[in-house]
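Entry for the shared binder. Reason: the reviewer on the internal report wants the predicted structure included alongside the sequence.
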Amino acid sequence: MEKKISRTGGTYFFSGQFLITRGIQTNLTPEEIKVIYLEIQRLVKEKSGLDYLQVYVHEDTGQELFFIDQLNQEMIASGGYEPEHNHCTLMLAEEY
């Protein structure tokens, strides 16, 4: 599976639409993707928010994976963003 490089201290909740890139679809199994998503949701609850960027390193390949949230809680609460802007994306680092 993946090893997480923790980045705590933030107001991002990864609560918007979950998107994955083509690189993630090609390089990770659906089970691996689910594990990452569920771990982020658990950490958000445990820490009451995270940094907008969470980094994983795939233990087998050494590839870095970025999980990026687009909007934090203040931005969502402001009403200044369209609902489609509220998304989080899991991608390979080289896709950034």
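Summary line for the report: Strands lie at 2-5, 8-12, 17-20, 53-58, 64-69, 87-92.
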